[in-house]
C-alpha cells in the first residue's frame, strides 16, 4: 500500500511542485488560482493532479466564502461574496510527517548552485539563509542579501523561481552595503538576530 502511494506521488514534475506547495504550507488553503500562481503550473495540470492527490487522501477541499471585486454596469468595482473551492493538505495522511521532512530537506540551497545565482543579482557582499532553508520557523527571515547595484528584474525572477522550487513564499530582505553597515554600527536587533541565531552563509565578503 505504502509503495503504491509513493509511486503515485513521485512520478510527475507537476505533482512534485504541488507536493511542495501543500507540504511546505500545512496551515494554508489555496484556491485553484492561488495554487496555479504559486506553484507555476497550468490550471488544467492543477485540476488533474489535485484530483489524484485527493484520491489518495493527501489533500482535501472545502467550499469557502470570500470577497471578490465585481465590475458593475458603470465599470466600477464593488465587493461581492462568492463561493470558492479551497484545497489544503491532510495532516492526518499516513505519510504526512515523512513527506514534509523530505520536502524540507530537498529545498534548493546547494551552496554552489544557489550562490552562483545570487551573485548574478548585483555586487553581492553577503548572502545568508535561515528560516525555511534550515527548518527553523523561529528565524526572523528566510534570506538576507547585502550588496549594491541590484538588478531588480533579475531579483524578481530569482525570487519567483526560488519560491516555486521551495513551494512557499519567502520572507527575504535585500539591503545596500551602506544600510547594512549602518545597522551593524547601531546594533540593529534585526541584523543581529539574523547573524547571531542559526543560519547558513552562502557568500561572505564582509567577514561577519
Radius of gyration: 20 Å
| Main beta sheet strand tally, sense and closure | 4 strands, mixed
Structural class by secondary-structure content: alpha+beta
- End-to-end gap: 51 Å
Task: Please give a structural write-up.
- 44% of the residues lie in helices and 23% in strands.
- The protein is built from nine helices and six strands; from the N terminus they run ααααββααββαβααβ.
- A four-stranded mixed beta sheet has the order 5-4-3-6.
- A hairpin with a 5-residue loop joins β1 and β2.
- α2 packs across α5.
- The N and C termini lie far apart (51 Å).
Write a short abstract of this structure.
The chain has 208 residues and is α+β, with helices and mostly antiparallel strands. Helix content is 44%, strand content 23%.
List keywords for this structure.
208 residues, alpha+beta, 4-stranded mixed sheet, two-stranded antiparallel ribbon, 6 strands
Helix/strand layout:
Elements: H1 2-9, H2 13-24, H3 32-39, H4 43-55, E1 59-71, E2 77-89, H5 96-105, H6 111-119, E3 123-129, E4 143-148, H7 152-166, E5 172-175, H8 177-185, H9 189-196, E6 200-204
Helix pairs in contact: 2-5
Amino acid at each position: 500500500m505504502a509503495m503504491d502511494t509513493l509511486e503515485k506521488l513521485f512520478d510527475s514534475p507537476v505533482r512534485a511542485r504541488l507536493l511542495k506547495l501543500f507540504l511546505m504550507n500545512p496551515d494554508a488553503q489555496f484556491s485553484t488560482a492561488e495554487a496555479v500562481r504559486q506553484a507555476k503550473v497550468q490550471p488544467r495540470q492543477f485540476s488533474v493532479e489535485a484530483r489524484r492527490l485527493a484520491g489518495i487522501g493527501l489533500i482535501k477541499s472545502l467550499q469557502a466564502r470570500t470577497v471578490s471585486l465585481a465590475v458593475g454596469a458603470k465599470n466600477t468595482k464593488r465587493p461581492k461574496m462568492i463561493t470558492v473551492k479551497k484545497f489544503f493538505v491532510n495532516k492526518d495522511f499516513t505519510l504526512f510527517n515523512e513527506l514534509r521532512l523530505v520536502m524540507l530537506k530537498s529545498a534548493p540551497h546547494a551552496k554552489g548552485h544557489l550562490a552562483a545565482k545570487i551573485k548574478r543579482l548585483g555586487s553581492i557582499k553577503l548572502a545568508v539563509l535561515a528560516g525555511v532553508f534550515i527548518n527553523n520557523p523561529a528565524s526572523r527571515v528566510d534570506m538576507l542579501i547585502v550588496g549594491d547595484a541590484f538588478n531588480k528584474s533579475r531579483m524578481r525572477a530569482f525570487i519567483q523561481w526560488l519560491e516555486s522550487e521551495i513551494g512557499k513564499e519567502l520572507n527575504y530582505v535585500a539591503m545596500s552595503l551602506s544600510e547594512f553597515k549602518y545597522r551593524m554600527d547601531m546594533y540593529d536587533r534585526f541584523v543581529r538576530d539574523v547573524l547571531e541565531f542559526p543560519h547558513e552563509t552562502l557568500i561572505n565578503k564582509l567577514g561577519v
